[in-house]
Amino acid sequence: MSAIVFAIPGNIDLPTGGYGYDRRLLREWRQMGVEARHLALPGGFPFPTEADLAATELLLAATAPDDILLVDGLAFGAFPEALAARFADRLVALVHHPLALETGLEAAQAAALRASERAALGHARSVAVTSPATATVLSTEFGVPESRIFVAVPGVDPAPRATGSRGDQPLQLLAVGSLIPRKGYDVLIEALTRIADRDWHLTIAGSPDYAPETAAAIETHIRSAGLADRILLAGAVQPDNLGELYDKADLFAMPSLYEGYGMVLTEALARGLPIVCTLSGAGADALPADAALKVPPGDVAALANALARLIDAPAERRQRADAAWAGAGALPRWHDAARIVARACLGGGSREVG
Description:
The mean pLDDT is 94. The protein folds into two domains: 4-155 and 332-353, Glycogen Phosphorylase B (Rossmann fold, 3-Layer(aba) Sandwich); 171-328, 3-Layer(aba) Sandwich (Rossmann fold). The chain is of the alpha/beta class. The strands form two sheets. A seven-stranded parallel β-sheet has the order 2-1-3-4-5-6-13, with helices on both faces. The protein has a six-stranded parallel β-sheet with strand order 9-8-7-10-11-12, sandwiched between helices. The relative contact order is 0.14. The chain has helices spanning 17-32, 50-61, 73-76, 81-86, 107-121, 132-141, 185-194, 212-224, 239-248, 263-270, 282-286, 300-312, 314-328, 334-346; strands at 4-9, 36-41, 68-72, 91-95, 126-129, 149-152, 171-176, 200-205, 231-235, 251-254, 275-278, 292-295, 352-353.
């Protein structure tokens, strides 16, 4: 029987949504008895060196001939077509979102990634994606037949309801995600600057390591806005500590410009948190309307107004928190996502969950 070899670039233990999804698939497959193993690829993707590509080819070639090669999209989208073609008979892609849609790329970089990802996807026997929106993009813009796409939205674990802050503290806002351009933290900071007369404190949990220039610009923006004592950049936060941040939060904010899904939104929903977010991905679309205020991506005024509305209205915050908690029970679970991706690799069964 074929085994799944899950090829993932870089350090799988990093606290990002993509790596978290990958780790959870491997964990679920172990529990389900699906034969699968992790294959670490060089960390240079999505901008690999020639040495990275040579090492990747050797690693893939060293697998058993009947192994199914599931390749995380951070690497897959940057595969040269010849590399994808060599393993086409057993190659499966896992696409969180197309690499070319990452915010902050130069035009030439985006064009190169779009071309390489489209060519590589042409050699995949099937493609697993983490949202219906990404499925649509791949079929309409990257030429992937719908019949080869499997939709496996991220699962959510049951979690205790957030208790929130104490009444003698400022209202605690929480945002989670790496300090990269796509997350829109500059928009959030500018929005909060406009409502600095309210009593709030923001914690941003996310690594500064993926885009150091962006992280430095965010720090400068906070200082120049006079908000250094009101916005905490907590850095990369491990899962146990992140749970504590969710528990102490009163309101969750996600200002992203684009998301393939947006796992943090359903994680906040699972905690019963009221949410202010942008309409930037399938995760926002999945939120109950009575649990979240949703605004256009990049719209500072709309984001500021939504935040001010819930900061100023404790009763509405409680109503939206109750709606979030009520909706948490209907969230998809990780074993569903793992089954769908296993089917993409090994064949058979439904093509969509969630």
